[in-house]
Amino acid sequence: MKRTHILVCTGTGCTSSGSFQTRDALVAELKKQKLTDEIDVVETGCMGRCDLGPVALVHPEGTFYKNVLAADVPKLVEEHFLKGRPYEKLLPADPTTQHVIQTQADFTFFNRQLRIVRDNCGVIDPEKIEEYIARDGYLALGKVLGEMKPEQVIEEIKASGLRGRGGAGFPTGRKWELMRQAPLNPKYVVCNADEGDPGAFMNRSVLEGDPHSVIEGMAIGAYAMGANRGFIYIRAEYGLAVKRLHIAIEQAYQYGVIGKNLFGSGFDFDLEVRIGAGAFVCGEETALMRSVEGRRGQPQPRPPFPAQRGLWGKPTNINNVETWATIRPLILKGAKWFSSIGTEKTKGTKVFCLAGKINNTGVAELPFGTTLREMIFEVGGGVPNGKKFKAVQTGGPSGGVIPEQFLDTPVEYETLQKLGSIMGSGGMVVVDEDSCMVDFARFFMEFCCDESCGKCPPCRVGTRQMLNILNRICAGTGELDDIQKLEDLAAMVKDTSLCGLGQTAPNPVLTTLKYFRHEYEAHIVGKTCPARVCRDLLHFEIDDPLCKGCSLCARACPVQTITRVGTQKKFQIHEEKCIHCGACFEVCRFDAVQKTSPGRRAAELELAGGTH
Amino acid sequence: MNLEELKKLKEKAQRQVSLREGNKKYRIVFSMGTSGIAAGAREVMTAMLDEIDKRGIDDVEVAVTGEIGLVDAEPMIRIEQASGEKVTYAKVNADGARKIVTEHLEKGKVVTGLAVGKVKE
Fold this sequence. Notes:
By secondary structure, chain A is α/β, with parallel strands linked by helices.
């Protein structure tokens, strides 16, 4: 028997901060201390606290360690595993109280969550099907094939109130029913794992941490809808998720939980992975299907909907990773249990990604109806460095920003839509007072402009024109009617684009115009960037009394425009050559470099007609 | 694969992960300070883990702690029950450890010859 399991997170977040090295160091050190008979090192999927990586969780105590680098391992093994006391150096602290946190259970970030979809993530080794089976894996599939008719499964899903987690929130049961009723055969089920929003990584975390939950959900869905073949469409950038999916599918075949005649029911289900090249538009279902078929990923007009004519002209059901992963717990615990969680209109939980200017960056699963404030300030631990919260962008580049006055909004599909944003994949990018909202909108517009597939002109040309205007405003050369032009273009792109990419691309601009119009006006009229972000509107100066003459700024300056004042010790910036990169501001340890956005001087404004 | 086979597999596999799920009936705490280790606590623990494994006992978790304070009574083991009952064993050797597993953990009977204190909270 092993007395202790050390769970090392090997999700993409933690592996990029070195968790594979940590794992190797742990295995070597335990061997050296002759502890291998007592202690196991287990690789798990994402635990959710990517910013603290590499993270490790020690059972049975539940001690949660952060930033466990290979170099820390010998001391950690000595303290915790030989002497039996927590190694304090690697314990996390609560961002608000600064109290040291000993166990995962004491961590607000973890104990505020309700984990249904991510129940196994960070608990089991995703590369071992046995561990999944130990946690009731494939029991739901066995139950469905043995005890339920396909129609009953669909009824159960309908009764649960489950809605698609891909963004639009279409009732899953209804979608399955439409597919079941489609007359053509064969039918296909598809998992949309083409997660493309900047700041969204919840699907990746599920696929890396618990790939079998998606496979089982798909097998159940295929049975209910009358399909025998499934595809998981995933982007090539998700290397680790692709690898773990391949391993999981192979093991599932070996154990006979997918393949021929499952559980003696006569039902066959074959599953394969299709890898995409990572185009944002391929998350759109019609483009996705073309890519699965091996063609260029471009959207098609709907109808026909995929349930009528999908892959190779046959009925096809496409659900998101999270939707598929929800099926298993829903079947095991029943529709009644599932519908008791969440809100009136939206049942269950949603996995959110907290990113941007937030203390607890990572993945958190919460019931629908949780307010933005709870999400950002309780689970997320608030905004770091004592900065002021400004807004949160929900739903990635297709979503919009939500300012402070709406923080008490309970999060579900309809409430976010009312504010001009969307749920989308569940990404939450927090913005603080140091961010310029015009620049922020420009970032997302640039993303959509790059990712536009080019098939329809409103999206291809419209997003480009909008980006040009935003660039101009940020550069300080915007004109007063630019706001009107932006609004007109936004309406046109939204109304006339072929697919969701174009139809939602103007959302960040529209919401920032709605809630932060004054920032646009400040750029255009006052030629100033209130958040001091837009380079062309900045001015750098060295404040003489504070300058100690240390020369750090002069050495950091890429254009050598900082020199000593005459023969004195102190430095000065020569404005004419300054490129406003801010390198001097970043390196100065005495706050002597002043960053301002002075805007137009009073005299100039008077000439321009006295606007403020 | 049929449902019966899956359930059997599950039972077998559960032992692998049950350690991570908590809520065990017994918690065994080894005094693993310098004096404990010098008196042979490591070997005692190895024997105990082996016996627990052999008997397929699931409902226990094992922890180590520092010096308890009674140096000449090492190796010491404390068995804490979820109900609050605690029994401390002293001068435990490998055979004693195996006996504690078969008597205390399996049958719920305290091994009186080794127990030094029993606190009911």
